[in-house]
Amino acid sequence: MNLYAPAVALAAAVLLSTCGQNAQLPIAATIGPDPQITEPASTLLPTINIPEAVGWPEGRMPVPAEGTEVSLFAGDLLNPRWLYELPNGDILVAESKAPAGSSPGGFRSWVAGLLMSRATSEVPNANRITLLRDADNDGVVEARHTFLDGLNSPFGMALVGEYFYVANADALVRFPYQSGQDTISAAPELVQDLSLGSINHHWTKSLLASPDGEHLYIGVGSNSNVAENGMDEETGRAAIWQVDVATGEARVYAEGLRNPVGMAWQPQTGELWVAVNERDELGSDLVPDYMTSVAEGGFYGWPWRYYGSHVDERVEGPMPFADDEVLTPDYALGAHTASLGLAWLGGETELPAPFAQGMLVGQHGSWNRDPLSGYKVIFVPFAGGEPAGNPVDLLSGFLSDDESQAYGRPVGVLVEDGGSVLVADDVGGRVWRVW
How far is CA 75 from each of CA 81, 108, 132, 408, 435, rounded to the nearest angstrom? Predict the structure, then answer.
Protein backbone atom coordinates (compact mmCIF):
# COMPACT_ATOMS: atom_id res chain seq x y z
CA MET A 1 0.00 0.00 0.00
CA ASN A 2 1.29 3.48 -0.85
CA LEU A 3 1.13 5.34 2.46
CA TYR A 4 1.74 8.65 0.74
CA ALA A 5 -1.25 8.39 -1.61
CA PRO A 6 -3.86 9.81 0.80
CA ALA A 7 -1.63 12.75 1.67
CA VAL A 8 -0.87 13.45 -1.98
CA ALA A 9 -4.54 13.28 -2.86
CA LEU A 10 -5.48 15.59 0.00
CA ALA A 11 -2.80 18.11 -0.96
CA ALA A 12 -3.90 18.04 -4.59
CA ALA A 13 -7.52 18.46 -3.59
CA VAL A 14 -6.72 21.46 -1.40
CA LEU A 15 -4.64 23.02 -4.19
CA LEU A 16 -7.38 22.59 -6.76
CA SER A 17 -10.09 23.86 -4.45
CA THR A 18 -8.23 27.08 -3.69
CA CYS A 19 -7.44 28.03 -7.28
CA GLY A 20 -9.58 29.32 -10.08
CA GLN A 21 -11.51 32.47 -10.82
CA ASN A 22 -14.56 34.11 -9.29
CA ALA A 23 -17.47 35.12 -11.49
CA GLN A 24 -17.33 38.68 -12.79
CA LEU A 25 -20.91 38.59 -14.04
CA PRO A 26 -24.16 37.92 -12.19
CA ILE A 27 -25.65 34.60 -13.21
CA ALA A 28 -28.56 36.49 -14.84
CA ALA A 29 -26.14 37.91 -17.43
CA THR A 30 -25.54 34.36 -18.72
CA ILE A 31 -29.24 33.54 -19.07
CA GLY A 32 -31.64 34.31 -21.92
CA PRO A 33 -31.66 34.52 -25.72
CA ASP A 34 -28.65 36.86 -25.83
CA PRO A 35 -26.28 35.95 -22.97
CA GLN A 36 -23.15 37.93 -22.26
CA ILE A 37 -20.10 36.01 -23.48
CA THR A 38 -16.90 37.23 -21.84
CA GLU A 39 -13.29 36.49 -22.66
CA PRO A 40 -12.05 33.16 -21.25
CA ALA A 41 -10.36 33.35 -17.87
CA SER A 42 -6.76 32.20 -17.77
CA THR A 43 -5.98 30.36 -14.52
CA LEU A 44 -3.39 27.81 -13.50
CA LEU A 45 -6.09 25.40 -12.41
CA PRO A 46 -9.85 25.34 -12.99
CA THR A 47 -12.30 26.80 -10.52
CA ILE A 48 -13.45 24.12 -8.08
CA ASN A 49 -16.40 24.95 -5.83
CA ILE A 50 -18.34 21.91 -4.64
CA PRO A 51 -20.83 21.85 -1.77
CA GLU A 52 -20.77 18.65 0.26
CA ALA A 53 -23.68 16.31 -0.44
CA VAL A 54 -25.28 15.59 2.94
CA GLY A 55 -28.92 14.70 2.29
CA TRP A 56 -31.99 16.33 3.80
CA PRO A 57 -31.99 17.22 7.51
CA GLU A 58 -35.07 16.25 9.48
CA GLY A 59 -37.88 18.72 8.87
CA ARG A 60 -36.27 20.47 5.91
CA MET A 61 -37.70 20.44 2.39
CA PRO A 62 -37.15 22.33 -0.87
CA VAL A 63 -38.82 25.72 -1.25
CA PRO A 64 -41.67 25.87 -3.80
CA ALA A 65 -42.73 28.93 -5.78
CA GLU A 66 -45.43 31.20 -4.39
CA GLY A 67 -48.85 29.71 -4.98
CA THR A 68 -47.54 26.13 -5.05
CA GLU A 69 -46.74 23.47 -2.47
CA VAL A 70 -44.14 20.72 -2.33
CA SER A 71 -44.54 17.29 -0.78
CA LEU A 72 -42.58 14.06 -0.68
CA PHE A 73 -43.81 11.72 -3.39
CA ALA A 74 -41.33 8.92 -2.67
CA GLY A 75 -38.21 8.54 -0.52
CA ASP A 76 -35.52 5.97 0.29
CA LEU A 77 -34.39 5.73 -3.33
CA LEU A 78 -30.82 5.04 -4.47
CA ASN A 79 -29.69 7.97 -6.59
CA PRO A 80 -32.94 8.58 -8.50
CA ARG A 81 -32.02 10.27 -11.78
CA TRP A 82 -34.78 10.11 -14.38
CA LEU A 83 -38.57 9.80 -14.44
CA TYR A 84 -41.15 8.37 -16.81
CA GLU A 85 -44.95 8.04 -16.59
CA LEU A 86 -46.68 4.96 -17.99
CA PRO A 87 -50.15 5.33 -19.56
CA ASN A 88 -51.83 3.85 -16.46
CA GLY A 89 -50.28 6.53 -14.23
CA ASP A 90 -47.48 4.42 -12.75
CA ILE A 91 -44.26 6.41 -12.33
CA LEU A 92 -40.91 4.84 -13.19
CA VAL A 93 -37.67 6.13 -11.71
CA ALA A 94 -34.21 5.16 -12.97
CA GLU A 95 -31.83 4.69 -10.04
CA SER A 96 -28.27 4.78 -11.29
CA LYS A 97 -24.77 6.18 -11.01
CA ALA A 98 -21.78 6.34 -13.34
CA PRO A 99 -20.60 2.92 -14.54
CA ALA A 100 -17.06 1.66 -14.18
CA GLY A 101 -14.73 3.02 -16.82
CA SER A 102 -16.38 6.42 -17.18
CA SER A 103 -13.20 8.24 -16.13
CA PRO A 104 -10.25 8.61 -18.55
CA GLY A 105 -7.74 7.75 -15.81
CA GLY A 106 -4.55 9.51 -14.79
CA PHE A 107 -3.65 11.66 -11.78
CA ARG A 108 -5.81 14.62 -12.81
CA SER A 109 -8.90 12.41 -13.17
CA TRP A 110 -8.11 10.69 -9.89
CA VAL A 111 -8.01 14.00 -8.02
CA ALA A 112 -11.10 15.26 -9.87
CA GLY A 113 -12.93 12.09 -8.86
CA LEU A 114 -11.90 12.63 -5.25
CA LEU A 115 -13.32 16.13 -5.32
CA MET A 116 -16.48 15.26 -7.24
CA SER A 117 -17.28 12.47 -4.77
CA ARG A 118 -18.23 15.27 -2.36
CA ALA A 119 -21.10 16.18 -4.67
CA THR A 120 -22.69 12.72 -4.98
CA SER A 121 -24.49 10.40 -2.61
CA GLU A 122 -22.52 7.50 -1.18
CA VAL A 123 -25.13 4.86 -2.03
CA PRO A 124 -24.18 2.03 -4.42
CA ASN A 125 -25.25 1.93 -8.05
CA ALA A 126 -28.70 0.32 -7.96
CA ASN A 127 -28.75 -0.32 -11.73
CA ARG A 128 -32.52 -0.62 -11.65
CA ILE A 129 -35.82 1.00 -12.54
CA THR A 130 -38.37 1.21 -9.75
CA LEU A 131 -42.13 1.47 -10.26
CA LEU A 132 -43.99 3.89 -7.98
CA ARG A 133 -47.78 3.60 -7.75
CA ASP A 134 -50.12 6.23 -6.35
CA ALA A 135 -53.36 4.33 -6.89
CA ASP A 136 -55.65 6.79 -5.07
CA ASN A 137 -54.03 9.90 -6.61
CA ASP A 138 -53.41 11.54 -3.24
CA GLY A 139 -49.83 12.49 -4.12
CA VAL A 140 -48.25 9.77 -1.97
CA VAL A 141 -46.87 6.47 -3.24
CA GLU A 142 -48.61 3.46 -1.69
CA ALA A 143 -46.70 0.71 -3.50
CA ARG A 144 -43.36 0.27 -5.16
CA HIS A 145 -41.92 -2.59 -7.19
CA THR A 146 -38.60 -3.37 -8.82
CA PHE A 147 -39.70 -2.93 -12.42
CA LEU A 148 -36.33 -3.87 -13.97
CA ASP A 149 -32.97 -4.69 -12.44
CA GLY A 150 -29.59 -5.96 -13.56
CA LEU A 151 -29.27 -2.97 -15.89
CA ASN A 152 -26.13 -0.98 -16.70
CA SER A 153 -26.55 2.57 -15.39
CA PRO A 154 -30.02 3.05 -16.90
CA PHE A 155 -31.25 6.56 -17.65
CA GLY A 156 -33.72 7.24 -20.49
CA MET A 157 -37.00 5.33 -20.76
CA ALA A 158 -39.78 5.16 -23.35
CA LEU A 159 -42.83 3.00 -24.05
CA VAL A 160 -43.64 2.53 -27.74
CA GLY A 161 -46.39 0.08 -28.64
CA GLU A 162 -45.85 -3.19 -26.79
CA TYR A 163 -42.17 -2.56 -26.02
CA PHE A 164 -40.52 -0.71 -23.17
CA TYR A 165 -37.17 0.84 -24.14
CA VAL A 166 -34.29 1.59 -21.79
CA ALA A 167 -31.19 3.61 -22.60
CA ASN A 168 -28.39 2.03 -20.58
CA ALA A 169 -24.97 3.62 -20.44
CA ASP A 170 -23.77 1.35 -23.23
CA ALA A 171 -26.85 0.25 -25.18
CA LEU A 172 -30.45 0.89 -26.11
CA VAL A 173 -32.44 -2.21 -25.19
CA ARG A 174 -36.11 -3.14 -25.13
CA PHE A 175 -38.47 -5.48 -23.28
CA PRO A 176 -42.01 -6.69 -23.98
CA TYR A 177 -44.52 -4.84 -21.80
CA GLN A 178 -48.20 -5.27 -20.90
CA SER A 179 -50.23 -2.53 -19.23
CA GLY A 180 -50.26 -2.80 -15.45
CA GLN A 181 -47.14 -4.94 -15.13
CA ASP A 182 -45.40 -4.50 -11.79
CA THR A 183 -42.16 -6.06 -12.97
CA ILE A 184 -40.48 -7.27 -16.15
CA SER A 185 -38.54 -10.52 -16.06
CA ALA A 186 -37.88 -10.96 -19.80
CA ALA A 187 -34.32 -10.74 -21.12
CA PRO A 188 -33.34 -7.49 -22.85
CA GLU A 189 -33.25 -7.29 -26.64
CA LEU A 190 -30.44 -5.15 -28.06
CA VAL A 191 -31.65 -2.34 -30.30
CA GLN A 192 -28.57 -0.12 -30.63
CA ASP A 193 -25.02 -0.38 -29.30
CA LEU A 194 -24.07 2.86 -27.51
CA SER A 195 -20.57 1.89 -26.34
CA LEU A 196 -19.01 4.67 -28.38
CA GLY A 197 -15.32 5.03 -27.54
CA SER A 198 -13.41 3.41 -24.70
CA ILE A 199 -14.23 5.82 -21.86
CA ASN A 200 -18.00 6.57 -21.73
CA HIS A 201 -17.30 9.81 -19.88
CA HIS A 202 -20.77 11.34 -20.21
CA TRP A 203 -22.61 8.13 -19.49
CA THR A 204 -26.22 9.30 -19.20
CA LYS A 205 -28.22 8.38 -22.31
CA SER A 206 -31.53 10.22 -22.44
CA LEU A 207 -34.40 8.91 -24.54
CA LEU A 208 -37.51 10.41 -26.13
CA ALA A 209 -40.08 8.92 -28.50
CA SER A 210 -41.57 10.93 -31.33
CA PRO A 211 -45.29 11.75 -30.89
CA ASP A 212 -46.19 9.27 -33.65
CA GLY A 213 -44.04 6.52 -32.11
CA GLU A 214 -42.04 6.02 -35.30
CA HIS A 215 -38.67 7.21 -33.96
CA LEU A 216 -36.63 7.30 -30.79
CA TYR A 217 -34.13 10.05 -30.01
CA ILE A 218 -31.08 9.38 -27.83
CA GLY A 219 -28.89 12.01 -26.22
CA VAL A 220 -25.23 10.92 -26.26
CA GLY A 221 -22.69 13.14 -24.49
CA SER A 222 -19.05 13.68 -25.37
CA ASN A 223 -16.16 11.58 -24.05
CA SER A 224 -14.31 14.63 -22.74
CA ASN A 225 -14.49 18.30 -21.91
CA VAL A 226 -13.08 19.62 -25.22
CA ALA A 227 -11.80 16.53 -27.05
CA GLU A 228 -8.62 16.31 -24.96
CA ASN A 229 -8.82 12.51 -25.23
CA GLY A 230 -8.64 12.67 -29.01
CA MET A 231 -11.34 12.90 -31.66
CA ASP A 232 -11.21 9.13 -32.17
CA GLU A 233 -12.98 8.87 -28.80
CA GLU A 234 -15.73 11.22 -30.00
CA THR A 235 -17.05 9.33 -33.01
CA GLY A 236 -20.83 9.34 -32.77
CA ARG A 237 -20.79 11.30 -29.53
CA ALA A 238 -21.79 14.85 -28.55
CA ALA A 239 -24.88 14.16 -30.63
CA ILE A 240 -28.54 13.25 -30.73
CA TRP A 241 -29.23 9.94 -32.43
CA GLN A 242 -32.44 9.01 -34.22
CA VAL A 243 -33.55 5.36 -34.24
CA ASP A 244 -36.24 4.01 -36.56
CA VAL A 245 -38.52 1.93 -34.32
CA ALA A 246 -39.70 -0.37 -37.11
CA THR A 247 -36.28 -1.20 -38.57
CA GLY A 248 -33.83 -0.41 -35.76
CA GLU A 249 -31.73 1.69 -38.14
CA ALA A 250 -29.92 4.55 -36.40
CA ARG A 251 -28.25 7.76 -37.53
CA VAL A 252 -26.88 10.98 -36.07
CA TYR A 253 -29.73 13.51 -36.11
CA ALA A 254 -27.77 16.55 -34.82
CA GLU A 255 -24.22 17.00 -33.53
CA GLY A 256 -21.79 19.37 -31.86
CA LEU A 257 -23.85 19.21 -28.65
CA ARG A 258 -21.36 18.58 -25.83
CA ASN A 259 -23.73 16.79 -23.48
CA PRO A 260 -27.37 16.72 -24.63
CA VAL A 261 -29.52 15.41 -21.81
CA GLY A 262 -33.20 16.29 -21.29
CA MET A 263 -35.34 16.35 -24.44
CA ALA A 264 -38.92 17.49 -24.93
CA TRP A 265 -41.37 18.23 -27.73
CA GLN A 266 -42.68 21.77 -28.14
CA PRO A 267 -46.30 20.99 -29.05
CA GLN A 268 -47.12 24.26 -30.84
CA THR A 269 -44.30 23.97 -33.36
CA GLY A 270 -43.64 20.22 -33.22
CA GLU A 271 -39.94 20.96 -32.65
CA LEU A 272 -37.57 18.81 -30.63
CA TRP A 273 -35.90 20.74 -27.79
CA VAL A 274 -32.88 19.69 -25.75
CA ALA A 275 -31.00 20.85 -22.65
CA VAL A 276 -27.22 20.84 -23.18
CA ASN A 277 -24.32 20.99 -20.71
CA GLU A 278 -21.55 23.11 -22.17
CA ARG A 279 -17.80 22.94 -21.55
CA ASP A 280 -15.82 23.75 -18.41
CA GLU A 281 -12.51 25.30 -17.35
CA LEU A 282 -12.86 28.67 -19.11
CA GLY A 283 -13.74 30.51 -15.92
CA SER A 284 -16.84 31.00 -13.80
CA ASP A 285 -18.67 33.00 -16.49
CA LEU A 286 -18.16 30.58 -19.39
CA VAL A 287 -19.77 28.72 -21.00
CA PRO A 288 -23.55 29.01 -20.48
CA ASP A 289 -25.48 25.78 -20.56
CA TYR A 290 -28.47 26.12 -22.86
CA MET A 291 -31.67 24.74 -24.27
CA THR A 292 -32.41 24.90 -27.96
CA SER A 293 -34.69 23.65 -30.67
CA VAL A 294 -32.88 20.96 -32.63
CA ALA A 295 -32.45 21.28 -36.38
CA GLU A 296 -32.18 18.00 -38.26
CA GLY A 297 -28.59 17.75 -39.51
CA GLY A 298 -27.63 20.75 -37.38
CA PHE A 299 -24.14 21.37 -35.97
CA TYR A 300 -23.85 23.32 -32.70
CA GLY A 301 -20.11 23.85 -32.48
CA TRP A 302 -18.58 21.45 -29.98
CA PRO A 303 -15.66 21.19 -29.50
CA TRP A 304 -14.34 23.90 -31.86
CA ARG A 305 -16.91 26.61 -31.13
CA TYR A 306 -19.14 27.57 -28.24
CA TYR A 307 -22.37 29.54 -28.20
CA GLY A 308 -22.24 30.23 -31.90
CA SER A 309 -19.02 31.55 -33.39
CA HIS A 310 -16.83 31.78 -30.26
CA VAL A 311 -13.59 29.89 -30.84
CA ASP A 312 -12.18 27.52 -28.21
CA GLU A 313 -8.42 27.92 -28.60
CA ARG A 314 -7.74 24.71 -26.66
CA VAL A 315 -9.02 22.50 -29.47
CA GLU A 316 -6.49 21.29 -32.03
CA GLY A 317 -7.31 20.32 -35.59
CA PRO A 318 -9.57 21.98 -38.16
CA MET A 319 -13.33 22.15 -37.75
CA PRO A 320 -15.07 20.05 -40.45
CA PHE A 321 -17.78 22.71 -40.86
CA ALA A 322 -17.78 26.28 -42.11
CA ASP A 323 -18.30 29.02 -39.53
CA ASP A 324 -21.66 29.93 -41.02
CA GLU A 325 -22.83 26.34 -40.51
CA VAL A 326 -22.48 26.58 -36.71
CA LEU A 327 -25.91 27.07 -35.14
CA THR A 328 -26.41 29.37 -32.17
CA PRO A 329 -28.57 28.00 -29.33
CA ASP A 330 -31.96 29.55 -28.63
CA TYR A 331 -31.75 30.22 -24.90
CA ALA A 332 -28.90 30.24 -22.37
CA LEU A 333 -29.57 28.65 -18.97
CA GLY A 334 -26.65 30.10 -17.01
CA ALA A 335 -22.97 29.28 -16.76
CA HIS A 336 -22.25 25.86 -15.24
CA THR A 337 -25.81 25.29 -13.97
CA ALA A 338 -25.67 21.64 -15.14
CA SER A 339 -29.11 21.85 -16.67
CA LEU A 340 -30.24 18.24 -17.12
CA GLY A 341 -34.00 17.78 -16.88
CA LEU A 342 -36.34 19.24 -19.51
CA ALA A 343 -40.12 18.98 -19.73
CA TRP A 344 -42.87 20.94 -21.45
CA LEU A 345 -45.49 22.41 -19.11
CA GLY A 346 -48.69 23.62 -20.75
CA GLY A 347 -52.36 22.97 -21.24
CA GLU A 348 -54.03 21.35 -18.27
CA THR A 349 -51.96 22.12 -15.19
CA GLU A 350 -52.49 22.60 -11.48
CA LEU A 351 -49.86 25.29 -11.26
CA PRO A 352 -50.78 28.97 -11.09
CA ALA A 353 -49.47 31.85 -13.20
CA PRO A 354 -46.75 32.40 -14.26
CA PHE A 355 -46.40 28.64 -14.87
CA ALA A 356 -48.88 28.52 -17.72
CA GLN A 357 -46.83 27.54 -20.75
CA GLY A 358 -43.11 26.88 -21.06
CA MET A 359 -40.20 24.57 -20.31
CA LEU A 360 -39.22 23.22 -16.92
CA VAL A 361 -35.48 22.73 -16.41
CA GLY A 362 -33.86 20.66 -13.68
CA GLN A 363 -30.53 22.27 -12.79
CA HIS A 364 -28.24 19.81 -11.03
CA GLY A 365 -25.84 22.56 -9.98
CA SER A 366 -22.32 23.79 -10.66
CA TRP A 367 -18.89 22.59 -9.59
CA ASN A 368 -16.86 24.90 -11.87
CA ARG A 369 -18.26 28.29 -10.77
CA ASP A 370 -17.72 30.58 -7.80
CA PRO A 371 -20.30 31.46 -6.53
CA LEU A 372 -22.47 28.42 -7.15
CA SER A 373 -25.17 28.35 -9.83
CA GLY A 374 -28.12 26.06 -10.47
CA TYR A 375 -29.32 23.71 -7.71
CA LYS A 376 -32.99 24.38 -8.50
CA VAL A 377 -35.82 23.77 -10.94
CA ILE A 378 -36.67 26.73 -13.15
CA PHE A 379 -39.49 27.52 -15.56
CA VAL A 380 -38.86 29.39 -18.82
CA PRO A 381 -42.07 30.92 -20.22
CA PHE A 382 -42.86 30.46 -23.93
CA ALA A 383 -45.03 32.39 -26.38
CA GLY A 384 -45.56 31.55 -30.02
CA GLY A 385 -43.40 28.45 -29.67
CA GLU A 386 -40.32 30.36 -28.43
CA PRO A 387 -38.87 31.38 -25.04
CA ALA A 388 -40.44 34.66 -23.97
CA GLY A 389 -39.12 36.14 -20.76
CA ASN A 390 -36.93 35.54 -17.76
CA PRO A 391 -36.92 32.21 -15.93
CA VAL A 392 -38.88 31.77 -12.71
CA ASP A 393 -37.84 29.48 -9.87
CA LEU A 394 -40.30 26.63 -9.33
CA LEU A 395 -38.32 24.72 -6.70
CA SER A 396 -35.24 25.92 -4.81
CA GLY A 397 -33.71 25.55 -1.35
CA PHE A 398 -31.49 22.58 -2.19
CA LEU A 399 -28.46 24.24 -0.54
CA SER A 400 -27.68 25.17 3.03
CA ASP A 401 -27.85 28.86 3.88
CA ASP A 402 -24.08 29.26 3.54
CA GLU A 403 -24.04 27.08 0.38
CA SER A 404 -21.42 24.74 1.84
CA GLN A 405 -23.78 21.76 1.81
CA ALA A 406 -26.18 20.30 -0.73
CA TYR A 407 -29.25 18.68 0.77
CA GLY A 408 -30.30 17.48 -2.67
CA ARG A 409 -29.69 18.02 -6.38
CA PRO A 410 -32.55 18.05 -8.91
CA VAL A 411 -32.14 16.01 -12.09
CA GLY A 412 -35.14 14.75 -14.08
CA VAL A 413 -38.44 16.64 -14.17
CA LEU A 414 -41.80 15.18 -15.20
CA VAL A 415 -45.22 16.77 -15.67
CA GLU A 416 -47.82 14.21 -14.62
CA ASP A 417 -51.02 13.80 -16.60
CA GLY A 418 -52.83 15.38 -13.65
CA GLY A 419 -50.74 18.54 -13.93
CA SER A 420 -48.42 18.29 -10.93
CA VAL A 421 -44.63 18.24 -11.36
CA LEU A 422 -42.33 15.48 -10.14
CA VAL A 423 -38.63 16.13 -9.53
CA ALA A 424 -35.98 13.43 -9.14
CA ASP A 425 -33.45 14.40 -6.44
CA ASP A 426 -30.44 12.09 -6.68
CA VAL A 427 -28.45 13.32 -3.68
CA GLY A 428 -31.57 13.45 -1.52
CA GLY A 429 -32.72 10.00 -2.64
CA ARG A 430 -36.24 11.35 -3.15
CA VAL A 431 -38.87 12.31 -5.68
CA TRP A 432 -40.60 15.59 -4.87
CA ARG A 433 -44.08 16.60 -6.01
CA VAL A 434 -44.94 20.23 -6.73
CA TRP A 435 -48.66 21.02 -6.95
Answer: 13, 35, 11, 12, 18
